[in-house]
Design a protein that fits this description.
Blueprint lengths: L20 H12 L4 E4 L5 E4 L1 H7 L3 H4 L10 H17 L3 E8 L5 E12 L5 E9 L1 H21 L4 H15 L4 E7 L5 E6 L5 H7 L2 E2 L5 H9 L3 E3 L12 H6 L4 E8 L5 E9 L7 H19 L6 H11 L3 E6 L4 E4 L1 H7 L3 H4 L14 H14 L1 E9 L5 E12 L5 E10 L1 H4 L1 H10 L9 H18 L2 E10 L1 H8 L1 H18 L5 E6 L2 E9 L6 H12 L2 E3 L2 E3 L2 E9 L6 H17 L4 E4 L2 H22 L3 E10 L5 E12 L3 E3 L12 H23 L6 E5 L1 H4 L4 H10 L9 E6 L7 H14 L2 E7 L5 H7 L4 E4 L1 H5 L5 H16 L3 E4 L5 H10 L3 E2 L8 E2 L3 H7 L4 H4 L3
Parallel strand pairs: 22-23, 25-27, 27-28, 28-29, 29-30, 30-31, 31-32
Antiparallel strand pairs: 1-2, 1-5, 3-4, 4-5, 6-7, 6-11, 7-8, 9-10, 10-11, 12-13, 12-16, 14-15, 15-16, 17-19, 17-22, 18-19, 20-21, 24-25, 24-32, 24-33, 25-26
Helix pairs in contact: 5-6, 6-10, 10-11, 18-19, 19-20, 22-23, 23-25, 25-26
Length: 871
């Protein structure tokens, strides 16, 4: 588009002063209209457009205003548009014109545009246009015309194969993305043979020619066997196509819709099939197409015998999908077919000899009908949309084509009209609305409508100070029904159960199907949870009572999860999720029952999940660090090792001690990650210190959960192998004496295997548990640590002193070394030495410190003189 094609669009205030309420209503209606509306100035530039106009042209309002949009259509179309625009603006004549619109990158549309001139108070002219998209109407007209051609072939006695090819050609030319076939039943009525399938690969036709019909024999074999339409949207994943999956893939077939071809008595003659290269779901128009085409094929097949030629012509007329009316030259009705009779409600006897005016409705003026006959006189035909009246007074829309039939002299002998009831097209918007909000199988509200109703119900709850319940229901055993009896029976079962469950609810409650065998019920105006119990029990009974379908009796049940609002004070989406979670608990508890959502438990689970995610994030971000606390021999002053203690260097909360986060993940998988990180980091630190000339053991704490993993020894071996420079005996593993070691024999074997690797064990916090003697006897630990709680108070509490003395004695008896934790003063050390305990750690010696400070501390450390001479 050049700059010449663009102007600055005038503001709306140029046309309207301060908007009134009625102008606001007009603006709203202007944009709500489904028909595109536009206003142009005298230079054919757009001043006003509505949303529908932007949609059909594929532009924004900003892109449209001030432009002719010449670049959006072909030059030829632009010339035609401007020609009629010019005529309307110059003459003031109102024009209704049919135009072809080809949008860049889009399919061609046929539009009917009503253009009219508007003159303002200053005498300035504007062009106002309203566009009607009649593409679907043209498609129907084309189909009517094509069907007429096929009917002519049938009437003229052409060979059946030629007629069937013509039928297939009509569909494929109208729908380039479709491939078609006609399969006929052979004389045995058990096999399908190719009638015509010229667009399908030859190898595919050879493979299916002569195939025996039956359930599961593709789409066509199943349709012919059951005498029911079979729609398969995805052939590669549908059970009917499993035996032919490779064949379909080679032929590049993605979808197959099969319609039985039936005789007038309902007998199956074969099948008509439409194929797509990709998985594809049919629209209502597609279903109408397959039904009409199969009907044409049925006419052709039934009349294939030469002796039935005359009867064929009558049958074509009688069974045509379009209503046919024939009048004489004086417009007196002489014939109508059955379809016309069904559409209008009149029999032939009731209308013969009468004028077609008996079908007139009050929707059209006399001028409308005069225009029809004006076109007939000039062109010999007319086509368009007419609102007619049935015998019962109901007014309905028709797409009508009227042709004048002339003799060789050019004189009119008859008028023939073909009409199609286009009520479905007129109701299409309503159908889309229903499809968008209701489940197609059960006619229950779907997830979209349920969400809206649930939102409204929560608002009503707040106003009325009442509660509501959301019950999530999943059928138990439904998959087995589908696998045993097939999806058709499964669908029938869902329909029956949905009706029962709906009847089990109270007036004002809602039942929705949200997919598969899952339903949600919303119960309103409740005082407390107990008010739901009677309804929930009725729902359980409705789901579990036996159901008979055909000759089969089957029984399923339901697992129900329920949550109560506003007790569970979350939004509608979360209410459904919470009910879903409770349903799984009901299913795990044995099915055929209900379970109420536990808010406290959910909060705990969410908190645990958050903790786990935070720990994983901390590992990935290297937020954990190890601090090290020295262990010394109080008598000799030697540093005998250090204990590695984990800390969390949180980005916002600072340094977090282990008791703040380790208990939250105890017994969970993430704790194994943390445990292995500690061992790996300790080994790396030992290696680093050795390079500095410091060779001391490092002890780390391991949980009972980690130690009791079946692969613990193998994992430890892998970690040691990653640090070959470190002697395994420099690593010590400390087990809490309070740990829940479920099988000490297995743990003992694991510890012995680790000892074979060179790793030593200690028992930490000894004396605080209930299995001290058992652990000493069965676990191969070389060292026991006296818990700091006893050491800290041993100087003031005789009981704690006795425990410390007892632990030291036990260690001596079982030939174990002993170390005391919690040594905070010189007096503690003196007392321990007097009891025979030389090894110690605690704040009186050193607090835990970062790894970089350990070498310097070891060099400078000297034990207290009081300890040296205490023994």
């Amino acid at each position: 588009m050049t700059s010449k094609d663009t102007i600055n669009a005038p503001p709306l205030s140029q046309f309207f002063e301060k908007p009134t309420e009625i102008e606001k209503y007009f603006s709203a209606a202007f944009n709500i209209s489904k028909d595109p509306i536009f206003v142009k100035d005298e230079h054919y530039r757009l001043l006003l457009v509505n949303d529908a106009f932007c949609k059909i042209l594929g532009v924004t309002r900003q892109e449209a205003l001030g432009r002719t949009l010449a670049q959006r259509v072909t030059p030829e179309q632009q010339a035609r548009f401007l020609s009629t625009d010019k005529k309307v603006l110059q003459t003031g004549e109102e024009i209704l014109c049919e135009e072809t619109l080809t949008i860049t990158g889009s399919k061609e549309k046929t539009i009917l545009t009503n253009k009219k001139r508007f003159t303002d108070s200053q005498g300035k002219h504007f062009l106002v246009g309203i566009i009607h998209d009649i593409s679907y109407r043209k498609q129907i007209e084309s189909r009517v015309k094509s069907s007429g051609h096929v009917l002519e072939l049938i009437s003229s006695g052409k060979p059946l194969n030629e007629i069937l090819q013509a039928i297939v050609r009509v569909v494929e030319q109208e729908n380039p993305d479709m491939l078609c076939s006609v399969l006929l039943l052979d004389d045995s009525q058990k096999h399908l043979v190719i009638g015509t399938a010229s667009s399908l690969p030859a190898f595919y036709n050879e493979a299916i020619n002569g195939i025996e019909i039956g359930i599961g024999v593709g789409s066509c074999g199943t349709a012919a066997y059951t005498n029911k339409r079979v729609i398969v949207n995805d052939v590669l994943n549908h059970p009917y196509w499993q035996p032919y999956k490779e064949l379909a893939a080679e032929a590049e077939l993605g979808a197959c819709w099969s319609e039985p071809i039936r005789s007038t008595s309902g007998k199956v003659l074969g099948t008509f099939a439409i194929y797509h290269h990709k998985a594809h779901q049919p629209t209502p128009a597609d279903l109408e197409l397959i039904e009409q085409t199969a009907s044409l094929a049925s006419i052709a097949i039934e009349k294939k015998h030469a002796e039935e030629k005359l009867e064929r012509a009558a049958s074509v007329f009688t069974h045509a999908q379009e209503g046919i009316m024939i009048t004489d030259a004086n417009l007196k009705i002489i014939e109508i077919n059955d379809t016309f009779s069904k559409m209008s409600g009149y029999s032939l006897e009731e209308v013969r000899g009468k004028s077609p005016n008996i079908f007139r409705s009050e929707r059209h003026s006399d001028e409308f009908y005069l225009e029809i006959w004006d076109a007939m006189s000039k062109q010999g035909y007319w086509r368009g949309e007419v609102w007619s009246k049935r015998k019962n007074g109901v007014i309905y829309p028709e797409l009508v084509t009227i042709n004048a039939v002339k003799n060789t002299a050019g004189k009119v002998q008859h008028y023939v009209s073909l009409s199609t009831d286009i009520t479905p097209m007129k109701e299409y918007q309503g159908q889309l609305e229903r499809i968008a909000h209701y489940d197609a199988l059960t006619n229950l509200p779907n997830r979209v409508l349920l969400a809206d109703r649930l939102n409204q119900a929560t608002i009503q709850c707040e106003r009325r100070k009442k509660s509501l319940a959301v019950a999530f229901m999943d059928l138990d055993g439904f998959k087995a029904v589908n696998d045993t009896y097939g999806h058709n029976v499964g669908d029938d079962l869902l329909i029956a159960l949905s009706q029962r469950m709906k009847e089990a609810l109270r007036e004002g409650d809602t039942l929705a199907r949200i997919g598969g065998d899952e339903f949600i019920a919303v119960m309103v105006d409740l005082e407390k949870f107990e008010d739901t119990k009677h309804v929930l029990n009725r729902l359980l009974k409705a789901a579990s009572d036996p159901v008979s379908i055909g000759n089969a009796s089957m029984q399923v049940s339901a697992s129900i999860g329920v949550t109560l609002y506003p007790h569970d004070n979350v939004d509608a989406d979360q209410l459904m999720r919470h009910a879903d979670q409770a349903m799984y608990i009901a299913k795990q508890a044995g099915k055929n029952r209900y379970h109420q959502f536990d808010i406290a438990h959910d909060i705990a689970l969410n908190s645990q999940r958050e903790n786990i995610e935070n720990i994983y994030t901390a590992i990935e971000n290297n937020e954990f660090v190890l601090h090290y606390q020295p262990k010394i021999n109080m008598l000799s002053g030697e540093t005998v090792g250090v204990e590695a203690l984990i800390r969390w260097q949180h980005k916002t909360n600072g340094l977090i001690p282990p008791l703040k986060f380790l208990p939250l993940i105890e017994g969970l998988g993430v704790s194994l990650k943390v445990g292995e990180w500690v061992i790996s980091t300790a080994l790396l630190q030992i290696e680093s210190w050795q390079k500095l000339g410091l060779d001391i053991p490092v002890s780390v704490n391991i949980s009972a959960y980690q130690l009791q993993q079946a692969n613990f020894t193998a994992r430890l071996s892998t970690l040691l192998a990653a640090h070959p420079a470190v002697n395994p005996n420099r690593l010590e593993l400390e087990i809490l004496e309070t740990s829940a070691l479920h099988d000490t024999d297995i743990v003992s074997n694991t510890m012995n295997d680790c000892r074979d690797l060179g790793v030593r064990f200690a028992i930490d916090d000894f004396g605080t548990g209930y299995s001290s003697l058992t652990y000493l006897k069965r676990l191969p630990a070389y060292l026991i640590k006296i818990d700091q709680s006893f050491v800290r108070d041993m100087l003031e509490d005789n009981d704690d002193l006795a425990i410390v003395q007892g632990v030291i004695s036990l260690a001596t008896t079982f030939q174990r070394k002993v170390i005391a934790e919690g040594v905070e003063t010189i007096a503690h050390g003196k007392a321990l030495l007097q009891l025979g305990c030389e090894l110690a750690q605690g704040y009186g010696i050193a607090k835990p410190m970062v790894a970089s400070k350990i070498p310097d501390w070891v060099k400078k450390w000297e034990n207290d003189k009081a300890w040296k001479f205490d023994v």
